[in-house]
Amino acid sequence: METISLDGAVSFITGAGGGIGESIARELAARGGVVVVADIEKDAADRVAQDILSQGGQAEAMQVDVGNAQVVQAVADEVFVRHGRLDVLVNNAGVSMRPLRAVWHASITDFEWMMRINYFGVVNGILSFLPRMRAQGTRGHIVNTSSFVTLDDVPGHGMYTASKAAVDGISEVLRAELEDQGDPIGVTVLYPGQVTTRIATSERLRDASDRSEARGVKPYARVRPIAAYQKAIDPDLVGAMVIEAIEQNRPYCLTHPAPLETLERRVRDYAAGAHDVQRA
User: Fold this and answer.
1) Edge-to-edge strand ranges of the sheet holding 34-39
2) Which domains does the chain have, with CATH numbers?
3) Longest dimension (CA), the chain
4) What is the CA radius of gyration of the chain?
5) Based on the number of CB atoms within 10 Å of its own CB, is 278 exposed (0-12), middle (13-18) or buried (19 or more)?
6) Residue-wise pLDDT tens for the chain (280 aa)?
7) H-helix segments, 41-119
């Protein structure tokens, strides 16, 4: 697949009103691209877009609730009306909850809210933008934000892990489908470790009665030691990592060293659990 040119590329980034999404938007703008800064908090999106414009970049802000399929479709329609195409789609918006909790201490509304944003937010982005990206017939790229929690075992983060594991699954299959069909569109899964963003305060976006603080959720008691990927880094560092992954069409982009001990154990456990049907 040919190398993508980001100079003049049109990009749509969700959750771009701060943190990782903002960093990605700034890097894409610095490469000469036109960036659509999308966020559920319009003031945050406006701030980022205006700052990019003040530095000579090209940006515009849009408000979007990624969990609402109709809203995402309407926003996609507007992007294509304004720009006629989309080259880079970054499905980055995500939420978490505090305190961390055991799976059995989570409510069904907790699970539904997290899946609505973290997983269906990605699905809605893909369904709203990808068909027209494919029709362009030009080199494009999709970045879906997952998390290091799917690469390791992080007790207390069951809901978040489940939602991000779904992102892994759809991204892997989507990449294979695009390759099979000969579409020049790459797919990268972004795995952030600990990054100093506002994701821990995500519940500010929920109805007050649903928030953990209003329900007295029991915090999970940590037992395992702090892992290397739980050493926080500044979100400003992540944008450049993502740009490199896009340009090199890498399937994965990790912000920290991979938890090889866990991954290797999983491979051994898969092998040990496999049955030879030829001998059955």
Assistant:
1) 58-63, 34-39, 10-13, 88-91, 140-145, 185-191, 252-254
2) 10-273 (3.40.50.720)
3) 68
4) 19
5) exposed
6) 889 999 999 999 999 999 999 999 999 999 999 999 999 999 999 999 999 999 999 999 999 999 999 999 999 999 999 999 999 999 999 999 999 999 999 999 999 999 999 999 999 999 999 999 999 999 999 999 999 999 999 999 999 999 999 999 999 999 999 999 999 999 999 999 999 999 999 999 999 999 999 999 999 999 988 888 889 999 999 999 999 999 999 999 999 999 999 999 999 999 999 998 877 5
7) 42-54, 69-83, 108-118
Structure tokens at 231: 């050493």
Q: Please give the Cα distance from 221 to 180 (Å, whole number).
A: 46
Task: Report whether 40 contacts 66 (CB < 8 A).
Answer: yes
> Residue 63, SS3?
strand
Long-range contacts of the stretch 105-112 (C-beta < 8 A, 24+): 105/217, 105/218, 105/220, 106/158, 106/159, 107/215, 109/210, 110/159, 110/212, 111/159, 111/162
Contact 67, 42 (CB under 8 A): no
Q: Which amino acid is at 145?
A: T
- Amino acid letter for position 37: V
Give which of 192, 81, 199, 183 is closest to 142, Cα–Cα.
Answer: 183
| 119 is an active site residue | no
Closest CA to 179 of 251, 121, 120, 128: 251
List all residues 6 or more positions away from 35 whose beta carbon is below 8 Å from its beta carbon: 11, 12, 13, 16, 25, 28, 29, 49, 52, 57, 58, 59, 60
Q: From CA 226, how far away is CA 216, in angstroms rounded?
A: 25
Of these residues, 119, 160, 191, 229, which one is catalytic? Answer: 160
With 0-12 / 13-18 / 19 or more C-beta atoms within 10 angstroms meaning exposed / middle / buried, residue 124 is buried
